[in-house]
Amino acid sequence: MLVVSFIALGALWKTPQFESHAAGRKLGEGLSRFVLGPVRIVVQTISVVLFAVVLAAALVGTGDPFENLAPTWVYVIFWLGLPLLSLLFGNVWRALSPWRAIADAFVWVWERVGREARPLAVYPERFGRFPGVVALFAFVTLELCYSNPSNPRVLAFAIALYSYVALFGMLAFGRETWTVRGEGFAILFAYIARIAPLVAREGRIRLRLPLTGLAGAEPVPGSTLFIAVALGSVGFDGYSRTITWQDLVARVEAPYVLDRPGTGELLVAGLNLAGLVAAITVVLLAFLAACAVARSMVSAPRSLRSDFLLSLVPIALVYTVAHYFSLFVIQGQFAVPLLSDPLGRGWDLFGTAGVHPNIAVLAPNTIWYVQAASLVLGHVAGLIVAHDRAVAIFRDRGDALRSQYAMLALMVVYTVGGLWLLSRG
Questions:
Q1: 310-369 pLDDT tens trace
Q2: What's the pLDDT at 422?
Q3: pLDDT by residue (tens digit) across 89-119?
């Protein structure tokens, strides 16, 4: 499939298409004003209320993660649902982020009392997106390395810490600057939103062709490492479920289970952290090697890393879909009864506490077909993005094609690796 797509692109896609279509077509002015005005305010208000409920559930709700709303909301509804919303409707996190909503409200009140809302400091450009890398890495470390990431009290601490950093960052450097440089979730969802057919720009909602938002280069420092963390963390999650990794974990923990269980948990957490870092490193080095080979084949005067980086965004998305599709569909149903009883106190606020999720809603074959199809289509999309960028930066068609040999090999490696992880999980 990838090879056929590569041949078709080389034969048919001779001029860049994405940059000329990235701006999109404006939708109705009234619709834009309504969605970006009253609807956004209502959504932000609901977001802050839900944030308060989830934080309260984590702080004072039952300690049972299956009866507490916080774990399901954070790891399923939020972590897996937001990429889907971003893919369909664009950068919705700008309205759904409770931290951005709180900052917007603060600025609104501050300006209404006659004060000027200004950042406390100028953000150092050399920092790029590295603060966002740290934020995303911290979250996936909690999710994949800590022994009990679903513990509501642990989640409460994590939510409070992240909230403090997010709000302080916006206060110190400005809402927009910290959103695009330091707020890990905002950066990730914004990348995925660049695939979407909808975009809000200059106060208007625009309709554009999917993937065209990925046109251009991505020269901001830290961007490559950020995408590597997003992609590598999902890869490690898949590998950590294999028998090979589980056997290794068992061997490391076994000598300490009876006498020193805390030591055993600490060693396993360290092992998982090492595995996570290794997976991120493999993804990063594979991409850098492909870019270096592509550069050598066309004798490019500069690195091609920033030019081809955005081709990894569809792959990061489909890795998430492939690995977590069934979890989102099945476990996501439990949010319905939990919303009526978020603290696990036996409440039935909305009359849904008695809803019984259908855990057999997906057949095994359906799951596999969705996983395999998403992986292949996502890598084809990545190949398209890279090819469009190649014909945009190389005037010679032969150079454009030669630069893509290494990217095709990279996509094949990522696809085979993803399918292997799914078959072993």
A1: 999 999 999 888 888 888 989 999 999 999 999 999 999 999 988 888 887 888 788 888
A2: 73
A3: 999 999 999 999 999 999 999 888 878 888 8
Residues 382/312, Cβ–Cβ less than 8 Å: yes
221's CB contacts (< 8 A; 6+ apart) are: 125, 126, 127, 128, 129, 130
* Separation between Cα atoms, residue 346 and residue 146, nearest integer Å: 29
| Residues comprising the chain, all counted | 425
Q: How far apart are CA 174 and CA 183, in angstroms?
A: 12
For 167, counting Cβ atoms within 10 Å of its Cβ (0-12 exposed, 13-18 middle, 19+ buried), the class is middle
Nearest alpha carbon to residue 146 among 265, 276, 324, 251: 265
Residue appearing with tokens 């006498």: 259
Provide the residue ranges of all domains of the chain, joining segments of one domain with +: 27-207
Distance CA 234, CA 373 (A): 17
Bridge partner list, 265: none
Three-class HEC string of the chain:
CHHHHHHHHHHHCCCCCHHHHCCCEECCHHHHHHHHHHHHHHHHHHHHHHHHHHHHHHHHCCCCCCCCHHHHHHHHHHHHHHHHHHHHHCCCHHHHCHHHHHHHHHHHHHHHCCCCCCCCCCCCHHHCCHHHHHHHHHHHHHHHCCCCCCCHHHHHHHHHHHHHHHHHHHHHHCHHHHHHHCCHHHHHHHHHHCCCCEEEECCEEEECCCCHHHCCCCCCCCHHHHHHHHHHHHHHHHHHCCHHHHHHHHHHHHHHCCCCHHHHHHHHHHHHHHHHHHHHHHHHHHHHHHHHHHHHHHCCCCCCHHHHHHHHHHHHHHHHHHHHHHHHHHHHHHHHHHHHCCCCCCCCCCCCCCCCCCCCCCCHHHHHHHHHHHHHHHHHHHHHHHHHHHHHHCCCHHHHHHHHHHHHHHHHHHHHHHHHHHHHC
User: What is the token pair recorded at 376?
Assistant: 């292949």
The predicted pLDDT at position 292 comes to 92
- pTM of the predicted structure, to 2 decimals: 0.94
What pLDDT is recorded for position 425?
Answer: 60
Query: What stretches in the chain show pLDDT beneath 70?
Result: 1-2, 6, 424-425
